[in-house]
Amino acid sequence: MERIKMGPIELSRVIQGYWRLTSWDWSPEKLADHMNTCVENGVTTFDTAAVYGGGECERQMGKALAFDPTLRSRIELVTKVGIVPKGENAAFSHYNTTYDHVMRACRDCLERLGTDYVDLLLIHREDPCLDPAECGRALKDLQAEGLIRAYGVSNFDPWKFQALNQATGQSLVTNQIECSPLCFEHFDSGMMDLLTGTGIHPMIWSPLAGGRLFTGSDEACVKVRAVLKELAEQYGTTESAIVYAWLAYHPVKALPICGSNRIDRLLEAVRGVEIRLEHVDWYRVYTASGQKVLR
Ligand code: NAP
Known about the structure:
Layout: E1 3-6, E2 9-12, E3 15-17, H1 28-40, E4 45-47, H2 56-67, E5 76-81, E6 83-84, E7 94-95, H3 99-113, E8 118-123, H4 132-144, E9 148-154, H5 158-167, E10 175-178, H6 185-188, H7 191-198, E11 203-205, H8 212-215, H9 219-235, H10 239-249, E12 255-258, H11 263-272, H12 279-288
Parallel strand pairs: 3-4, 3-12, 4-5, 5-8, 8-9, 9-10, 10-11, 11-12
Antiparallel strand pairs: 1-2, 6-7
The structure holds NADP nicotinamide-adenine-dinucleotide phosphate (NAP).
């Protein structure tokens, strides 16, 4: 498995995501076993967030890391802060990227994960009330304290990305964004061009559109599946491997996050990023849903 250098850290090209973990009903032993199988297949990076399962996702990962204490030094942990869901501490769901909140939220993540540091901390969403200087100071202080090895953002538009990047001395190592043959938001916003031009590699969430690509009955899904089927036959592989090959082909050098709990599906991602598409075939997938028309 290829490894991608991102500032001071290195991540596996394919990442395992645990957003859906709390619905899998796994014991700490089963989760530790899953993490070990991922590592054996070269997937050493795991994605979570403070809000996943109301903190339960990080807690379950912490229990798995305690079950097998050898795991922590062999993996990279990515988590996210900055969303405050409605509940005990908030009457209304909102974002909070202030200095105090980011500092406290990161420490809470570490406690739930049962670890002294995370490899990568992301600001989860594009807070419209973001103060780049204040948020940037928190990220830098957390890094200086050794609580995080690197930092970045998620779902940011190019303007907020540039503002925070400037405030941190160009130290953001990624923007974790949605992208799939059904989702082109970050092509349209110019984010992909900004990242490609600055040599910053995005992490890609919902690469299979959360499974909708294969289960959706709407016209766009049906059209994409037909093109993926043809390409899968042409390349002697599976439809989802073609999606991962499509994501890997782009010069931005993205790191897709697989959200399945099945190792066979993770291995399709691992194989997929190794497939080199013909240049023309990248455009077949890009235009497959009918949302994109080349002029
Ligand atoms: P995904 O890989 O697009 O979707 C995974 C879902 O698709 C699973 O429910 C999986 O079911 C299903 N699936 C996969 N292959 C399938 C097939 N051939 N047929 C039918 N269903 C299939 O990714 P995701 O889970 O939406 O997102 C991946 C990760 O990105 C998350 O775990 C999280 O870490 C991260 N994320 C980040 C953000 C953010 O705002 N930064 C937002 C969302 C997600 P099985 O488990 O049964 O295979």
